[in-house]
Amino acid sequence: MTASVLEIRARVARRRGVVVGAVLGVVVVLAVVTLSLGDYPIAPAEVWRTLWGGGDGAQTYVVFQVRLPRLAMALLVGAALGAAGALLQSLLRNPLAGPDLLGISGGAGAAAVFALLILGWGGPLLAVAAFAGGNVVAAFLLLAGRHRADGGYRLILAGVGVAFLCVAVTNFLMVRAQVELAQLALIWLTGSLASTPWWNVATVAVVVALAVPAVVASARWLPLTQMGAATAASLGVRTSTVRVVTVVTAVVLTAVTCAFVGPISFIALCAPAIARPLLGHGAIGVGTSAAVGAALLAAADLVAQFAIPGQSVPVGVVTGAIGALFLLWLLATSKGRNL
């Protein structure tokens, strides 16, 4: 290995470290602000003291039972969606690919609405239905993209079709439902982090942790598959296996987040699009995308809670607005014209 290659690798590693460190610093700042603000304000020093067991009863309850689980869920969901978006965009070689475009979020949402409005399910059963809906869409996408030559295009076209079908099914169920139930379903479909219990956070954390090895393996294999099927095969990598592992991993990460907080839009699209130019060397940047996704969702949840005085809105409203503006900006820049 030549000295120039070693220098390039060292430079890339340093830049990655700086970027990830900066993003994590932003996450820490957002966490402090999130735990401090609210109807019962707590100074940052008191928040730190409370986290280490030194706060009074009211501070302990507010921090550990109200604000911390919501913050933890925002970070977990943002990281999972950021990683899922990076995997899908790299697999399909399309910076606009993501769970929303491929119908994964729509499948989870349609299944959850059916369970809520038709079957009368709620709580854990609603989460199970949403998770199952996302995985049904995944199975269909894998069948549609089973041919190696055009698998990426087939996945995108099949995903767009499934997304529209899920929207149609969801709308049909909503217009036939009672007003009260339809309102509950609409709030869930928007995506919200409000009233997050610790068992929800623990469940999502366990699933994300179990998916980490597959995420790491996919991030290592995908650059090799992009060199072509023959080259990848000569290096001992099967593109069909990589496609299956990558899609299943992205679906699991997306479905578990949809199951507990609803289909939060645009995080999976925006996080990789921000991470790639920050890294600046054409890497997939799955870990960086996860960190950016966590920061984006935590920031969006702050806006959702405090942008309108005296009123909190679902975080999905904020991510939808931010994502739409970001997409318009992306399309208006040179990077957008190269999509």
Give structural notes.
78% of the residues lie in helices and 0% in strands. The protein is mostly helical and 339 residues long. The chain has a single domain (14-333), classed as ABC transporter involved in vitamin B12 uptake, BtuC, CATH 1.10.3470. Helix 4 runs parallel beside helix 6 (151-176), helix 5 (124-144) runs antiparallel to helix 6 (151-176) and helix 5 (124-144) packs antiparallel against helix 10 (239-261). The longest helix is centred in the N-terminal third of the chain and has 36 residues, at 57-92. The two termini are 34 Å apart. Belongs to the binding-protein-dependent transport system permease family. FecCD subfamily. It is a multi-pass membrane protein.
At the fourth level of CATH, the homologous superfamily is ABC transporter involved in vitamin B12 uptake, BtuC
The CATH architecture category equals Orthogonal Bundle
Largest sheet: none
Strand and helix order: HHHHHHHHHHHHHH
Structural class: mainly alpha
Strand content: under 5%
CATH topology: ABC transporter involved in vitamin B12 uptake, BtuC
* Total count of strands: 0
Distance between the termini: 34 Å
Question: What global shape is seen?
Answer: globular
Radius of gyration: 21 Å
Number of domains: 1
* Highest-level CATH class: Mainly Alpha
Helix tally equals 14
Transmembrane segments: 18-38, 71-89, 101-119, 125-143, 155-177, 197-222, 242-275, 281-300, 312-332
Family: Belongs to the binding-protein-dependent transport system permease family. FecCD subfamily.
Organism: Microbacterium insulae
Main location: membrane
